[in-house]
Structure prediction request, 527 residues.
Amino acid sequence: MTLANTPPHWSALTASAARIEATPSATLLGDDERNKDLRHTLAGCHFDFSRQRVDGQILRELLELTRVTDLAGKRDAMLAGEKINASEGREVLHTALRDGAPNAPALMREQVEQTRSRLYACAEAIRGGSWRGYSNRAIKDVVHIGIGGSHLGPELLVKALAHLPQSQVAPNIHFVANVDAQDISHALDGLNPETTLFIVVSKSFGTLETQVNAASARSWFLERTGRTDAIAQHFIGVTTNLQAAAEFGFAAENLFPLWDWVGGRFSLWSAVGLPILLQIGAQAFSQLLAGAQTADEHFASAEAAQNIPILAALLATWNTTALGCNSLAVLSYDQRLALLPDFLQQLEMESNGKSVDTNGQQLDYRTMQILWGGCGTNGQHAYHQLLHQGTSRFAADLIMVANDPWERQEHHQWLLANGIAQGQALAIGHRPTDPGEQHKYVGGQHPSTTVVLDELGPHQLGCLLAICEHKVFCQGVLWNINSFDQWGVELGKKLALPIFAQLEGQDSSAQDPATRRLIEYLSINRS
Ligand code: F6P
Prediction:
């Protein structure tokens, strides 16, 4: 696979890519009419695409792709509940979780509504102190156990929105995802089982890491209390697999359903988001859902040329497939969004990291690039050197928040100044005229999007994350791939099973020599 090609319907764009390569970003940015067409605001989220490497002609050609690929028809099919996840035979209706799919089947909408009111009541009881542990004490610590889509969204939002003023005291929320014992040992350290509640989240209830961590949590609890009958008061489960969860010991009233029509990485709006609800309360959680719903309505109805997720997807796909950017740097200029790159890594890479199209054909063009990132300004003193003077082709998303709650305005002004400056340097670079100063050459011409949230509130964040979800869907359509399965993850899971047994002493001679030697080395060196 050379990946040098572009999808079949991209011929006009291939010629345009050559033209834009020869156009400096400074020239593009000098055209304020063009820039105006590339700036869009929705619900306190401002998207500035002007530093992308496109001109008016390319934008028109990209918009034509939405017609050729029937993007609008496919979007409507998704929102109406058609089984667009063909390899798993499933609908894709995470929008129904925030009332953003009005044409979804009535039964689904009812299930969502019922589960949401149970969830709100549960959170209210925990936050308000009426949920009591076995010794009649209120809950102080919540340990959330889950991985991937059952972890990343909740932790991102719990941390991002921890600054919101509280009408009630939120419990301390701890996250355990990795099967590495350090994760759970660290979380449990110093906790009192009388005042600790576990939330076990697993869509399948079959994920190894979550099974092992949940079993350790239960042992920890039983060793300290000896009270099997108290498991019900101290364990909440969220899953589609209600039977397996019941066998674990959850009480039926403390089990919250998930549904096959919600992908794990799109599930933070469901009961998976219980820790978010515990952190921010029902009112703010409703605002989070309302922000996402605003994005859903916009996605469903705005013209393609004004439609933020469609534009974001067209530009991101252009960068990858036509301009050859092989990574996407997500640079959060707000420490509260430090986990945004981790969340987007799963959302974008697990969804669109594919090399087979919807007809099962191998692709010969690039799809989702490696997404990575971190926080500004810290990154400027670490990896930005490579961004400015290295040889990699990449695109960047810079995320800023206009207002912060800390009463230290000078800090925030510097943060924003640096965020704006980095985008400028990535676009325009620096060409020293003095031949003796060529070591200071900064090429520029790197495409970037700047997102500015008016403030980091639940409404803005809900809108931003839903836009990211829709962008992922649109990119899948443009690349003709299924964004909603993740078969590649299965291989590693399957391979780990015999290796686990071989580390325990079973015969490993059927393994390839490199694997066998590693197993032997570890077996000898484990005490
Ligand atoms: O293995 C990958 C994955 O299946 C993700 O898609 C998912 O979010 C995660 O594992 C956790 O799965 P579950 O919620 O079923 O435990």
The pocket of 6-O-phosphono-beta-D-fructofuranose is lined by residues 147-150, 202-204, 207, 210, 264-265, 350, 486, 489 (CB under 6 Å). The two ends are 45 Å apart (CA to CA).
